[in-house]
């Protein structure tokens, strides 16, 4: 096993590195990476980015959005969060239990006086509160297993950057926060995330009974990863366009009445668009629906498109700016 | 061909089937040559039973090129042993151009589990190197003992771990 040293905080690079090491790098050893992202929402392989994120908040706070190779739900990363990735050879995956990967972490924390446990699903917890979520991806005989460790993440941002699920609408932040915790309050005061990172690396090697070895990425490695960043991980197509079909609904009241809009979005394009509600039309609103149908569902695109359209002709009393604001 | 059309390996209450008239790729997918020259591709019973219940099937779009041994798409599946979900990459058994993706999978991905050799087919590929690549595929008789060996290995692992033997 080798510890791949990765000090990048660029989420596109960090996720591309996993794929590179899994599929393209010529390194036979089993690999561990410990890494951190600048503020980022990392969405699951089969999620709709725009359905998961609170878009205005994410944009305003310059939080990046990137899709990962593994399944599951959206998570928020910042520099208070430490990620670990294992890239291993596995012949069979039927019973590659998540707990195998949790054990060395639980062991390491126990040496620091923290009693953590595995919840039997995919979380590592302390006092029944989750501080680590895990996910896996198999391709051929290679397994990628990665997870997060909340050390001192800003949990309030976490609640705001992710869109609350409908059933939690009234108390979204509370529900999310009551389930997760940072580790820092459970550790001695002088512990910082870099020390934890080093201790964790040593513990994982010790747990697996392997001599500790580090690997520095070569210039060639970095070039190859950057190619993958440019071709995939930094692209709109991968992060937003890859979303399976989904619906977007919004209701608003404005000077001229009330409006309900309903969009179907497929592969990042508006495939269906419907305006209804209580408002006055100078021209049939269907014409506005036709203008938007088939357009790429990207804010800058719809902004420049609607600048050229007199929206109030279709929906009396509504400006293009007001319409744009409620499209995301 | 037998009456059923399948070879079967029975283990406890689980039955692993291998369809006799298909060809098989090392990485757990099957191949059927259609009369129009297209190649229908699907996943093996072994892969769906060990991978678990398919929640999402995400296959590369029609028109895209694939290489033998490359990734054709992914399944997001609920593991039989745990509630945890895993992404499993599907390997393309041939090189060529994807002509058609089984559209029903968007609505009903579990049909891959229900009928992996029939309704649960994944896509149709127009092959570009069929004569050569056909050589590395296995017939059912050759694939069956490989599957049997793998199933036994998985069962061994369950026993070692002392957990209940579970497949989808």
Question: How does this model look, in words?
Answer:
The complex is a heterodimer of chains A (about 325) and B (about 170). Chain A starts with a strand and ends with a helix. Chain A has helices at about 10-25, 50, 55-60, 100-110, 155-160, 170-180, 195-205, 220-235, 235-240, 285-290, 300-305, 320-325, and strands spanning about 1-5, 30-35, 40-45, 65, 75, 80-90, 115-120, 125, 130-140, 140-150, 215, 245-255, 255-265, 270-280. Chain A has 2 domains: about 1-240, Bira Bifunctional Protein, Domain 2 (BirA Bifunctional Protein, domain 2); about 245-325, CO dehydrogenase flavoprotein, C-terminal domain (Enolase-like, domain 1, 2-Layer Sandwich). The model of chain A is unreliable at about 165-180 (pLDDT under 50). Chain A is built from 12 helices and 14 strands. Chain A is α+β, with helices and mostly antiparallel strands and about 325 residues long. Chain A has an 8-stranded mixed beta sheet, sandwiched between helices. Chain A has a 3-stranded mixed beta sheet with strand order 4-3-5, sandwiched between helices. Chain B is α+β, with helices and mostly antiparallel strands and about 170 residues long. Chain B has a single domain (about 5-160), classed as OB fold (Dihydrolipoamide Acetyltransferase, E2P) (Beta Barrel). Chain B contains 5 helices and 12 strands. Chain B has a 7-stranded antiparallel beta sheet with strand order 7-10-11-5-4-3-12. In chain B, strands 6-8-9 form a 3-stranded antiparallel beta sheet. The interface of A and B includes residues 92, 97, 122, 138 and 245 of A.
Backbone shape of chain A: elongated
> What fraction of residues of chain B sit in β-strands?
35-45%
The ordered H/E elements of chain A are EHEEHHEEEHEEEEHHHEHHEEEHHH
Strand order, largest beta sheet of chain B: 7-10-11-5-4-3-12
Major β-sheet profile of chain B? 7 strands, antiparallel
CATH topology of chain B: OB fold (Dihydrolipoamide Acetyltransferase, E2P)
